[in-house]
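Reviewer 2 asked us to include a model.

Predict the structure of this chain.
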Amino acid sequence: MKKILITALLAALTAGSSFAQGQVGFGNTASNAIFLNSGSTTTKMFGSAGTYDFGLYMGSAGTTSLSGMQLVALALSPNATTSTIFNAGLFSYTGGTVNSPGNVANTLNFAAGTQYAFFVAGWAASAGSYDNAVTTQAYNGLSALGFITPVSSPTPIPSVFGTSAGQIGGFTLAAGPEPATIAIGGLGAAALLLFRRRK
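Predicted model (structure tokens):
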């Protein structure tokens, strides 16, 4: 009887630990490429390997801001000397699959079978982090909000990029202040001009 109980307990623990381990696919394709906006032109992202970093941030399903999420994986842009070669606009995460736990220290250990919200952020690697890239107005960009339910293998691994519900498409990295800041500044300038004309 004791042997049966121990066997059942071990089986339950094994099932629980396998459920806890989650996997998601982290990588993009040409159909969801990353673009660079220099202010005058928009081209597919290019540069020497590692010019840009990409982070997968995940949080509970109700999370809608990056500050409420945790970084779970970092990926790098490949070598792309021009915006017209085949790997321009792409980035690469080693193996393409993010496994939990064990990716980036002190971050979210996401479970299989549980839905999470996520963002993908991109930034100039020279800035060191996404937050610093935004502050220093280096190239940076943020994807649309997505939702994903990690799985445990051998189930097909869901990808963050795609066209299905919850997946995201490509996005643009731009240098300088955020578009909203520019728009507010433009409205302020227009209001000043109108005020001066009335005087």
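The chain has one domain: 21-198. The CA atoms of residues 23 and 155 lie 10 Å apart. We have added this to the supplementary material.
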